[in-house]
């Protein structure tokens, strides 16, 4: 079971990153929505998941590439607003759990219809 401190850290990091993304001038990034963030125990690494439901494969690749370039700006923002001594290294990924849930819902609907 995850402890409350870890969940609070993840929630805070999610909020800081979403705030930083919306403040960027790049329209590819400012419109992205983060679904969840998971930070490692010592705050060394964090996995940030992006909602890719409205992005095609090319837009997903472009968004991930742009996020990689903007990482230093995102880290600077997180350090500034959080007051932390260090900021984790970010790895951005597309969150496919929402799409999987939609596929399952559609499958169950077809099963019920039969």
Automatic annotation (TrEMBL):
Main localization, broad class: cytoplasm
Name the record gives this protein: Ribosome-binding factor A
Keywords for the protein's UniProt record, in alphabetical order: Cytoplasm, Ribosome biogenesis
Superkingdom of source: Bacteria
HAMAP family with a match to the protein in the record: RbfA
GO cellular component terms, semicolon-separated: cytoplasm
Assembly notes: Monomer. Binds 30S ribosomal subunits, but not 50S ribosomal subunits or 70S ribosomes.
Pfam family, one: RBFA
Functional description taken from the UniProt entry: One of several proteins that assist in the late maturation steps of the functional core of the 30S ribosomal subunit. Associates with free 30S ribosomal subunits (but not with 30S subunits that are part of 70S ribosomes or polysomes). Required for efficient processing of 16S rRNA. May interact with the 5'-terminal helix region of 16S rRNA.
Organism (species): Helicobacter ailurogastricus
Membership in a protein family: Belongs to the RbfA family.
GO biological process: maturation of SSU-rRNA
The keyword Ligase appears for this protein: no
